[in-house]
Specification:
357 residues; alpha/beta; seven-stranded parallel beta sheet; 12% strand
C-alpha cells in the first residue's frame, strides 16, 4: 500500500513529533497548516484554511493524483464558546475528509482529542459528574456539549461512507517541542522558569492544592506519535478509542522542585493559594524581549511561546486527573516514557534551538 501520510496541524506540538516519527519510518509526509510556523525538514507543506472547504479542496486536489493511506488530525481552532468550537472544529474534520476520503478507502484516519472527553470543555471544565479516575475509555461521553464528540461523529460517518478505519487518541497534557502552539505547558514552564531566574523571583506553583497534592500523569508528544503510528498499523486498534499517557504517575509537589533544580532556581513553598500565570505574567513581555536580545534568542515575543491560560487550566483543576492505559496494553502497545525525562529532554532542545538561554 502507498505510504503517503497527511498530518493536519503539522506544525503543532503533536504534528511536529508525528512528522519526525513518520519520516524516520520511511513515509512520504504531507502537512497541512496555516503556514505561520516552520515544519519538520522533509515534510511537504500544504497551506490552507481548514474552515474553507473550497480552498482546502483546491489545495488537496492539486497533488496530481496523490492519495493518502493515513490521515492524522492533530489540530483544533479555539473559539469563543463551546457551541462555536463544535461548529468550527467539526467542520474542519468534515472538510478534510470530504476532500481526501474517496482516496482513503482501505486506509486509516486518526483523531487526537484529549481528556476533556471526560472532564468536559473549558467553559464547563471539571464541573458536574466527572468520572472516577483513572479515566477509562468505557466511561464514554459526558452529558455536555463537547466539540470532541462532534469531531468523532464526523470521523465515524466519513469512515463508514468512504471505507477506511479510524482511531481516536486521548492524551493528557502534552510535552513536546513546538513554537506558537496554543496548548504547550512544557514551553510555557520553561519560559516562566527562565523569567524567574533572570529576574530573581521564586518559582511559584500557580495551580490548585488538588493538583499539588494529587496524582497525575502527562503525555510526551513523541510517545503519542508512536501510539498514533501503532494504531494506524495494528488490526486490534482499528475503530477503537484510546487514552494515551506516558505510563508513570507523579505529584506536582514532587516534580515542581525538580524542574526548578534544572534551571538553577528556587521553588517557593506552596501555601495552597492559586496564583495563575495569566494574571501574574501580564507585564512580562518587555522582560522577555530584553532577555531574548541579551542572549540572542530566536523569539523575542513571549506571546509566540507561552500559553499561560492553558497551563493555568491544567494546573488549576480542582480534582485528580489521570488516565488508564490498559486498553492499549491489551491491544499490544507496551511503550513507556518517563515524564521527568520528557521535561528535561524538551528543556535541552529549547536551549539547543536558542529558544531559552
Amino acid at each position: 500500500m502507498k505510504k503517503n501520510a497527511l498530518i493536519v496541524g503539522v506544525s503543532g506540538v503533536i504534528g511536529s513529533a508525528l512528522a519526525v516519527h513518520l519520516l524516520a519510518d520511511g513515509a512520504s509526509v504531507y502537512g497541512l497548516s496555516r503556514g505561520r510556523t516552520p515544519v519538520a525538514a522533509g515534510v511537504k507543506p500544504l497551506t490552507a484554511d481548514l474552515t474553507d472547504p473550497v480552498a482546502l479542496a483546491e489545495v488537496l486536489g492539486s497533488l496530481d493524483g496523490i492519495e493518502f493511506s493515513k490521515v492524522f488530525f492533530t489540530a483544533w481552532a479555539r473559539q469563543a464558546n463551546e457551541k462555536e468550537n463544535i461548529r468550527v472544529n467539526g467542520a474542519m474534520v468534515s472538510n478534510v475528509l470530504d476532500a481526501v476520503g474517496p482516496g482513503l478507502r482501505g486506509g486509516h484516519a486518526a483523531l487526537v482529542t484529549g481528556l476533556k472527553h471526560y472532564l468536559g470543555p473549558f467553559e464547563a471544565y471539571g464541573t458536574g459528574n466527572v468520572p472516577m479516575t483513572p479515566f477509562r475509555e468505557e466511561q464514554g461521553r459526558q452529558p455536555v456539549d463537547n466539540f470532541y464528540y462532534e469531531q468523532e461523529d464526523r470521523l465515524f460517518a466519513a469512515a463508514e461512507r468512504h471505507g477506511f478505519s479510524w482511531s481516536v487518541h486521548r492524551p493528557h497534557t502534552i510535552i513536546g517541542f513546538a513554537i506558537g502552539n496554543a496548548m504547550n505547558m512544557g514551553v510555557t514552564l520553561a519560559v516562566y522558569a527562565t523569567l524567574c531566574k533572570q529576574t530573581g523571583q521564586l518559582f511559584v506553583f500557580p495551580g490548585s492544592a488538588a493538583q499539588w497534592e494529587g496524582l497525575t500523569d502527562m503525555t510526551d508528544a513523541r510517545l503519542l506519535a508512536r501510539h498514533l503510528t501503532w494504531a494506524s498499523d495494528t488490526a486490534a486498534a482499528r475503530n477503537q478509542d484510546f487514552n494515551v499517557v506516558d505510563g508513570d504517575v507523579f505529584r506536582w509537589k514532587w516534580l515542581w522542585p525538580r524542574l526548578a533544580e534544572y534551571f538553577g532556581i528556587e521553588a517557593a513553598d506552596f501555601d495552597g493559594t492559586m496564583r495563575p500565570l495569566a494574571e501574574r505574567m501580564q507585564g512580562c513581555a518587555g522582560q522577555w524581549k530584553e532577555i531574548a536580545e541579551r542572549h540572542a534568542l530566536k523569539e523575542a515575543n513571549v506571546d509566540n511561546l507561552v500559553s499561560w491560560w492553558h497551563t493555568d487550566a491544567d494546573l488549576g483543576r480542582p480534582m485528580e486527573v489521570l488516565a488508564d492505559m490498559t486498553k492499549s496494553r491489551k491491544a499490544g502497545f507496551l511503550d513507556f516514557q518517563s515524564t521527568p525525562d520528557a521535561f528535561t529532554d524538551l528543556f535541552d532542545k529549547l536551549r539547543a534551538e536558542r529558544v531559552i538561554p
